[in-house]
């Protein structure tokens, strides 16, 4: 027993899961940090204890891709409901996207969003800023104001944020590269999609599969390859969001083999849903990039297993029932909630595919924390790490019911799906955000921005003498 120290909380009896192993041990927590891990007899006295016998203790998931719609669209979601959903899903840190109203493209809009998030969040968070031609002169101020990274929209999506030209992307990469911040990319080529959509609309196609026809895998493959080339040239760190096709895996793997600092994520929808589901789910399934043909699922799964894809995220993107059930697919809002159901669905899939809980911890916690410079403060169950825990029953059979999820949006393609795992408690920096499947009143406003603890490695800036700033600088003499 640790002499003379009284912990705030000791979790006993659970099976701890790390990226390498599973073992039974207790965890002592004090002042929001993990104080000790070991045999129950070695745990200090505590103000509170939690018996986790029969449950697995995972590092809280880090979802690097959510849309909480706050500010601007509170009828769809806000930071309170979105982070409540995260807590119920065993997610202890979220990165929120900038396509709100206003879009997060300058210091003022960023400060206002920090105030909103800080007052409402049940879990920790990072905020993205838009990387586009409008925000180009504001990059320094945005970093000073506290961003986790930047989001570049190579293709159109909700909010209709303009896609920068390739020339603008190069200049933007040149500016961000020396800062070390990672650029997350909606990697779809806008010109291809808009041309195809216009032709399909002119033909009178309004069925759900028309959305998929407008955005074939080549739009993502071309965009990934192009972004990787710009990253390689400048040294900017990039992250490929929502990988949806097997075709994207080759340019991703080739870029990694060349030494490009590129990471990638996929989402449950691209592993668990396919074009075969469009007839049943209609517009509910509409998302950017689209859910694709079944033959993409196994290659994407294998890419997670072998590390080509680094992590799992959700692209949680809530809309109302009316916005998701329109008959004309072009008028259906793209996206659906997922932050609450990701862990149950993925742990169910892990069991079905005979992967390990350790694999899941690597994809959901360790890799996101390392890629964004938060490890080992986040993403790990280690002494000194933040006490971010998801305590999960991995043998709980239940059925997802949209009516019962925490998100304001009560419609998703997950409705009616069976799961075999369920988070029972979620702890954020030592505080229960969700306990015994009940949201804790004192958790609202507990969440804080993680940008202050971010420590990215020294960037490898390339071709600095050929940047736009360098070649347009006044000549001496």
Q: In whole angstroms, how far apart are the ends?
A: 73 Å
Outline type: globular
Global structural class: alpha/beta
Name the quaternary structure. Answer: single chain
From the alpha-carbon coordinates, what is the Rg to the nearest angstrom?
22 Å
Q: Provide the helix percentage.
A: 25-40%
Strand order of the largest sheet: 10-11-12-13-14-15-16-17
Please count the helical segments: 15
> What share of residues are in beta strands?
15-25%
| Beta strands, count | 23
Q: Biggest sheet, in brief? A: 8 strands, parallel
Mean pLDDT: 97
Could you please describe the fold and organization of this structure?
It is a single chain. It contains 15 helices and 23 strands. It is α/β, with parallel strands linked by helices and 477 residues long. The strands form five sheets. Strands 10-11-12-13-14-15-16-17 form an eight-stranded parallel beta sheet. Helix content is 30%, strand content 20%. Helix 5 runs antiparallel to helix 6 and helix 7 runs parallel beside helix 8 (249-257).
């Amino acid at each position: 027993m640790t002499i003379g120290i009284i912990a705030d909380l000791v979790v006993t009896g659970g099976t701890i899961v790390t990226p390498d192993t599973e073992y039974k041990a207790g965890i002592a927590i004090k002042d929001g940090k993990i104080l000790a891990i070991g045999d129950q007899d070695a745990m200090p006295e505590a103000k509170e204890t939690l018996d986790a016998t029969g449950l697995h203790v995972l590092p809280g998931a880090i979802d690097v891709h959510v849309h909480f719609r706050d500010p601007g669209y509170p009828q769809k979601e806000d930071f309170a409901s979105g982070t409540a959903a995260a807590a119920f899903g065993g997610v202890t840190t979220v990165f929120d996207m900038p396509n709100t109203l206003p879009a997060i493209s300058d210091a003022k809009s960023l400060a206002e969003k920090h105030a909103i998030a800080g007052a409402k969040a049940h879990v920790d968070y990072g905020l993205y800023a838009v990387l586009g031609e409008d925000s180009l002169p504001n990059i320094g101020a945005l970093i000073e104001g506290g961003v986790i990274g930047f989001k570049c929209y190579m293709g159109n999506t909700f909010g209709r944020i303009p896609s920068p030209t390739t020339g603008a992307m190069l200049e933007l990469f040149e500016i961000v590269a020396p800062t070390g911040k990672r650029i997350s990319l909606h990697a779809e080529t806008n010109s291809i999609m808009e041309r195809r959509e216009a032709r399909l609309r002119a033909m009178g196609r309004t069925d759900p599969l028309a959305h998929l026809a407008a955005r074939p895998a080549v739009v993502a493959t071309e965009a990934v390859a192009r972004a990787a080339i710009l990253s390689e040239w400048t040294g900017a760190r990039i992250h490929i969001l929502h990988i949806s096709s097997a075709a994207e895996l080759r340019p991703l793997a080739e870029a990694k083999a060349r030494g490009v600092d590129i990471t990638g994520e996929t989402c449950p929808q691209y592993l668990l849903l396919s074009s075969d589901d469009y007839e049943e789910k209609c517009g509910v399934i509409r998302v950017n990039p689209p859910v694709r043909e079944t033959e993409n699922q196994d290659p994407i799964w294998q890419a997670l297993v072998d590390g080509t894809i680094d992590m799992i995220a959700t692209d949680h993107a809530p809309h109302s029932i009316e916005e998701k059930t329109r008959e004309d697919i072009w008028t259906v809002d793209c996206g659906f909630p997922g932050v609450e159901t990701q862990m149950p669905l993925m742990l169910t899939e892990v069991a079905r595919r005979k992967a390990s809980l350790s694999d899941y911890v690597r994809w959901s916690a360790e890799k996101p924390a390392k890629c964004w410079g938060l490890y080992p403060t986040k993403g790990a169950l280690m002494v000194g790490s933040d006490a971010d825990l998801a305590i999960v029953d991995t043998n709980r059979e239940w059925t997802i019911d949209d009516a019962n999820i925490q998100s304001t949006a009560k419609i998703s393609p997950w409705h009616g799906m069976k799961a075999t795992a369920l988070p029972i408690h979620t702890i954020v920096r030592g505080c229960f955000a969700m306990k015994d499947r009940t949201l804790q009143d004192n958790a609202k406003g507990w969440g804080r921005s993680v940008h202050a603890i971010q420590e990215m490695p020294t960037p490898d800036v390339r071709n600095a003498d050929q940047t736009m700033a360098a070649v347009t600088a006044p000549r001496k003499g």
